[in-house]
Amino acid sequence: MSQSFIESTLQGFARAFSKALISEQAAIQPGLLQSLDPRVRVVGILALVIAVVLCHKLAVIGAVLVLGVVVAVASRLSVWSLATRVWFVVLGFTGLISLPALFITPGDRIVLVPELALSISAQGLRTAALLVLRVETAATLTTVLVLCTPWTHILKALRSFRLPTEIVTMLAMTHRYVFLLIETANQMFESRQSRMVGELTGPERRRMTARTAGVLLSKSVELSHEVYLAMLSRGFDGEVRLLTDFRFRVHDYFGLTGFILAACLAIWMGR
Amino acid sequence: MHIPDGYLSPSTCVTLYAFAASGWYSALNRVRRLLATRMIPLISVFAAFSFVVMMFNIPLPGGTTGHALGVTVAAIVLGPSGSILAVSIALAIQALFFGDGGITTLGANCFNMAIVGSVVAYGVYCLIAGKSEVGARRRAFAAAIAGYVSINAAALLTAFEFGIQPTLFHDASGTPLYAPYPLHVAVPAMMIGHLTLAGLAEAVISAGLVSYLQSSDIGLLRGIQGFPGMPGVANSVEDPSPVRLWWIVGFLMLCTPLGILAAGTAWGEWSSADLGNPAARVQIEASSGNRAAPSSVPAGLQKLSAIWTAPFPGYAPRFVKSAGFGYILSAMFGVGLLLLAALIATRIANGLGKWESRS
User: Fold this and answer.
1) What is the third-level CATH fold of B10-239?
2) Entry pTM
3) A20, A193, B66, B117: which sits with the fewest CB atoms below 10 Å from its CB?
4) Above 0.90 for ipTM, yes or no?
5) Is residue A73 part of a domain?
6) Domain residues for A41?
7) CB contact under 8 A, B28 and A174
8) Contacts of residue A232 in chain B, CB cutoff 8 Å?
9) Which of residues 126-145 of A touch B (CB under 8 A)?
10) Which class for B350: exposed (0-12), middle (13-18), buried (19 or more C-beta within 10 A)?
11) Could A213 and B171 be called an inter-chain contact, meaning their C-beta atoms sit closer than 8 Å?
12) How distant, in Å, are the alpha carbons of A167, B20, B116, B308 from that of A180?
């Protein structure tokens, strides 16, 4: 039992590394989204996500999902990776959550299961379908953006939208140190696991986890001191300066217009 | 508890973004004042730590495991302002990079977990820890309770946000357009998991971390350079003078007669007299979607309403003729009672602290 919780934590760390690696590889491939200015990608995908949240018609949300898949394929993302990374996960989670809505939402009965004294209402079916499809579509669009855009470009795009420089810098530094701390925690858990010869009791397991988290906290604070000193040594005076060297080209204008038009159309048709 | 896109209506998302933005703004200003240049690396690394702690599988009694948020530890070490920023940054990375939680719901997630979670955790921790020694076992207990309460407060808020969706946002056929479950389903469904597994996981990691820090790195519990640390702990920085707060309280008390401008009775706050009054019944039915009010005053309501008679019924003491002055007097009385309760609670907490330090 004691191994299982360490192993599941280690598996979580490995999944995070794997996701980051896949994102980095996909982001540097040549493709439709990758060829657009990062600001167009962020604004365009965000507009589509907002449109999906505003839409009340299944067919329109479905059409936006198809558009998202077409953009993903044109950006050289595999449909299977979207299915495993987004669709199955969302279906498992949101599908399970929305299942009882089929039976408990009051409305016109369309299916009756007398043996179980259950009935499915038209309203229940529609609300469950709306929820699952909307979450699938929004998650697909967000994943396509993340997979096709390096994190640094997303941050630069956010900076050009007047997000405070401190916030953008903190997002960038956090992203960088997340992986360093995951690596550190991974090493701590692995070294502990390699030295275990028996079963740990429940309290021992909890103490071990708390100690690992505590050591990680102490290391994090020490790391922040070191990072601060390194920043000072490079002349940091409290003022954050970021380079935003993006330039709009003709096809960026076309791309932005296309995204905004699609979003407006979806909102208008999905009312 | 990470709400994905699509569960909340656009207006709920916008409202919660506005709430979250006010929290971020005040936290950022406060942290800027306290830390200046040290803020960026410290909050960033702490955000990374919170992110990684969220990935830990915490072993729980009964052989199962759960995930913690780490918001309590952040609130204890950094104070609520630093914690709000660090946990918000961690949630933003989760949403933007790992797809855990939505983009349109990021404001809601940050409001529930980072802002409310941090403030509740800090408040409960301070209340229970009182002025006890920094190495006292009471602080580990306080961290456990703070973790448990804060995670459940955040979960309750999330459940409330889910629960109001079908009532407020449905189409003409009655189909809920967003989260489909009303409050009486959403609240128990959300709270069962958090009152048991998630709350316990946060309590275990919070108490465990405070115990670890007490034995190995006690300096962190006194606050990091610039951050205030806990009240009663050496190295703490006094909060600014409360004079400004008193001015605000006084102004709000003077504004209380504005309540007179609102016509009718608040929905659901009807007295047995209202239900027996034909004019009031018309208003009740109009504000309840033209559903008929009960034909007679419910027996239970009539019986229970006679148990206690308020000294200032309807914020209008009987000995005051002016409604406006009655409102102000009621506000002064209410504020006075709250101050008295706070004074008694502080005395009790101080007494417990002294008793513990002696023992």
Assistant:
1) Arp2/3 complex 21 kDa subunit ARPC3 (1.10.1760)
2) 0.73
3) A193
4) no
5) yes
6) 31-149+245-269
7) no
8) 37
9) 126-128, 130-131, 134-135, 137-139, 142-143
10) middle
11) no
12) 20, 29, 29, 62
